[in-house]
Specification:
The protein contains 23 helices and no strands. With 366 residues, the protein is mainly alpha-helical. It is elongated, with a radius of gyration of 24 Å.
Length: 366
């Protein structure tokens, strides 16, 4: 089909998605065409914009009721939700379709996230990741889960279970968790259960999608100030796991090596740092959050963190990340008397100083 189609034909296409028991092959043809129309990441198709309300009804109806075409319908929704206007339309549609006796569409499509429908699960997870990027939207989606803890536990089980044939279909669970961990309730569920520990092995996984989602999830968990001592405790051993992706092949003398946790000592000559600059930034942000309180700063200093950050700063090609690294090092190399506060979160920084620091950073980066 040509992408420029008459308006009346567009309406026929959209309405065909809402016919109960319609020809599945015809629906597939329509959905494949809609996948092309919705795929442009830079501009919205006029036919899609003009018929968005009816289109969303049709796509969600197929997703809810037609397993043969559910994946294609969901991928259309993934494309639409990748643009801000489309995302807002979908969220409005979902809010307007919550019935009095259940949690609405979200609770229905979540049923696909299981081992019986792995390919549909992958598409639904991609859609949920798009819908939960913004914190307010994440709250709306999470509230529509129904039995929230049961669903979160089922996601974790799918994510950590080895299934060579299908496990790639569940990789987006890590990104969904990272988005949902914008919410205090989800962070506390992850921290207070044993599920956070189950995510740690994925920090150094070759699968970049899973690794990225887990790093972002851990970063968000570091916003729980009251849990910093536990996050840095030997029970979890999080600090060396955050530092290892930032460490390179540099060799330290015996005295310096003894300051480092065992996992960071005598790293091989071919040790590579995390290649994704966004993930290096997330790791540095997590460490910065964990440095908010005096007793936590002392733990971080005592484990040789400065050595890893010093070598990272020498190597780091991204100037913005160099600045983030410098700011963290500046915290760690100062004495507590110089810092002058037990908790950075208690500081009330005047607006004029915030503007001054911002200008200093901009000057550094220019």
């Amino acid at each position: 089909m040509d992408s420029e189609i008459p308006h009346h034909l567009a309406l026929v296409m959209v309405h065909s998605l809402m016919i109960d028991g319609g020809d599945p092959n015809l629906k597939n043809d329509v959905l494949q065409h809609l996948l092309v129309l919705t795929a442009d990441k830079h501009k919205e198709n006029k036919m899609i914009v003009d018929n968005i309300d009816e289109l969303l009804k049709g796509l969600f109806k197929v997703l809810e009721t037609d397993t043969t075409n559910a994946k294609a319908a969901c991928l259309c929704l993934v494309n639409i939700s990748s643009k801000e206007n489309g995302l807002n339309k979908i969220m409005s549609f979902l809010n307007n379709n919550i019935s009095s006796n259940d949690s609405g569409i979200i609770s229905k499509i979540i049923r696909y996230i299981d081992q019986r429908t792995p390919e549909i699960a992958n598409a639904v997870l991609m859609l949920l990741c798009n819908l939960t990027r913004d914190k307010n939207h994440a709250i709306q989606v999470y509230e529509a889960f129904g039995d929230k803890i049961t669903i979160l536990e089922s996601f974790m089980k799918l994510f950590i279970t080895r299934d060579v044939e299908h496990e790639s279909n569940y990789s987006y669970i890590s990104y969904l968790l990272s988005n949902l961990c914008q919410l205090h309730e989800v962070r506390m569920w992850l921290i207070n259960s044993d599920n956070l520990q189950k995510l740690l092995p994925f920090l150094n996984l070759n699968n970049s999608l899973r690794r990225a989602g887990v790093i972002m999830t851990l970063k968000n968990c570091c916003f729980e100030l009251e849990k910093h001592e536990w996050l840095l405790s030997e029970d979890l051993d999080l600090l060396p796991r955050l530092l290892l992706p930032l460490a390179g092949p540099e060799q330290f003398d015996e005295e310096d090596n003894e300051k480092l946790p065992l996992d960071l000592q005598y790293l091989p000559d071919d040790k590579e740092r995390e290649p994704d600059s966004d993930l290096r930034l997330a790791l540095l942000q997590a460490l910065t959050q964990l440095s908010a309180k005096r007793n936590c700063r002392e733990i971080i200093r005592d484990q040789g963190t400065y050595l890893i950050l010093r070598e990272l700063h020498k190597w780091e090609p991204n100037i913005e990340l160099k600045l983030v690294c410098e700011n963290l090092v500046d915290i760690l190399i100062k004495t507590e008397d110089e810092i002058g506060t037990d908790n950075f979160h208690d500081l009330d920084v005047p607006e004029d100083l915030i503007d001054k620091f911002k200008k200093m950073d901009e000057a550094y980066l220019s």
